[in-house]
């Protein structure tokens, strides 16, 4: 598990701001859902998501207009997970 302090540090924001914007990051950018027990996220999923988020902006706009389609964020996550698996297992079949 990754705590809110560590995740906020990785995203370059404060824990208080992350508490406010994480649902929007989940909806728009594919951020993993937090654990229901508190302000923690599954580490493996979150690290894979962070790897695929080059230059993510924490400042979520004041309206519901999304400039970028969510398919790109999904594809980046799939590519990051594929690269992590390839690095770990070396392409073994």
What does this structure look like?
The protein has 93 residues and is mostly helical. 56% of the residues lie in helices and 4% in strands. The chain has one domain (2-89). It has four helices and two strands. A two-stranded antiparallel ribbon has the order 1-2. α1 (4-11) crosses α2. The termini are far apart. The mean pLDDT is 80.
| Helix content bin | 55-70%
Structurally, the number of domains stands at 1
Number of strands: 2
Number of helices: 4
What percent strand?
A: under 5%
Radius of gyration over all CA atoms, rounded: 14 Å
- Major β-sheet strand ordering: 1-2
Distance between the termini: 30 Å
Average pLDDT, rounded to a whole number, is 80
What would you call the shape?
Answer: globular
Which structural class fits the helix and strand makeup? Answer: mainly alpha
| Parts with pLDDT < 50 across at least 5 consecutive residues | none
| Strand/helix succession | EHHEHH
Concise summary:
The chain has one domain.
What labels describe this entry?
93 residues; mainly alpha; two-stranded antiparallel ribbon
Q: What secondary-structure arrangement, pairings included, does this model have?
A:
Elements: E1 2-3, H1 4-11, H2 15-29, E2 40-41, H3 43-51, H4 70-89
Antiparallel strand pairs: 1-2
């Amino acid at each position: 598990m990754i705590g809110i302090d560590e995740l906020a540090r990785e995203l370059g924001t404060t824990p208080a701001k992350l508490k406010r914007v994480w649902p929007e990051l989940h909806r728009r950018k594919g951020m993993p859902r937090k654990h229901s027990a508190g302000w923690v996220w599954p580490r493996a999923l979150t690290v894979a998501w962070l790897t695929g988020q080059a230059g993510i902006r924490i400042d979520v706009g004041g309206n519901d207009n999304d400039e970028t389609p969510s398919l790109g964020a999904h594809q980046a996550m799939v590519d990051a997970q594929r690269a992590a698996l390839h690095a770990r297992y070396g392409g073994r079949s």
